[in-house]
Specification:
With 189 residues, this protein is mostly helical. It has one domain. The protein is 81% helix and 0% strand.
Length: 189
């Protein structure tokens, strides 16, 4: 099943509209959507390695703009939208503890969530809710998201067919590791 989904994603990645789809997914993932853009970035780069850094730039810019949307949702619409997103990730019980801790480690939290599989949208909402400095949030998000997506692009670009072979051979193991890292990210934050 995972292999079929991977092959279908590779076909989508080859289409001309893939960049627009990636921009849309990267944007909404940063504020409301649960699936990270990496599921598109990786196949898109494997399908067209010569466009690796353009793909990373599209994901970075779209993700940061989506992060600003998440920030403003947290700032202005917390009661209407933000809480329901936190409920979906089962983080409401620890909310007050997280809120107080966030005042101390907000910049680090944004950086970690920007780079790791931890849902970046949770941090964008929190950043707005606690009124983190918007320029700090923006700068750290650009650095973190750029580092994440350009690192993936660089690795896939330079490894080329070796990366494709490795991913296809160990797809199930990589999926399990990704899920583990996601859970670990929740635990750490």
């Amino acid at each position: 099943m995972l292999k079929n989904l991977y092959l279908k994603t590779l076909k989508v990645a080859e289409k001309k509209s893939a960049n627009y789809f990636l921009a849309f997914i990267s944007f909404i993932e940063s504020s409301i959507f649960p699936i990270p853009p990496d599921v598109l970035i990786i196949p898109m780069i494997l399908a067209k390695p010569h466009r690796a850094f353009k793909i990373a730039a599209i994901a970075t810019i779209s993700s940061v703009i989506g992060g600003v949307l998440g920030y403003f949702i947290g700032l202005f619409l917390w009661n209407e939208i933000g809480e329901s997103i936190l409920n979906a990730y089962h983080l409401t019980e620890n909310f007050l503890t997280i809120k107080h801790k966030y005042a101390e480690i907000g910049n680090l939290a944004v950086l970690i969530a920007s780079i790791t599989p931890f849902p970046y949208k949770v941090i964008t909402l929190f950043s707005g809710f606690v009124e983190m400095n918007l320029m700090s949030f923006l700068l750290i998000s650009i650095i973190g998201r750029g580092l994440r997506f350009f690192l993936v692009a660089g690795i896939l670009y330079y490894l080329g067919e070796k990366a494709k072979y490795f991913i296809e051979k160990y797809l199930n193991l990589l999926f399990v590791m990704f899920c583990f890292l996601l859970i670990l990210g929740f635990y750490i934050i």
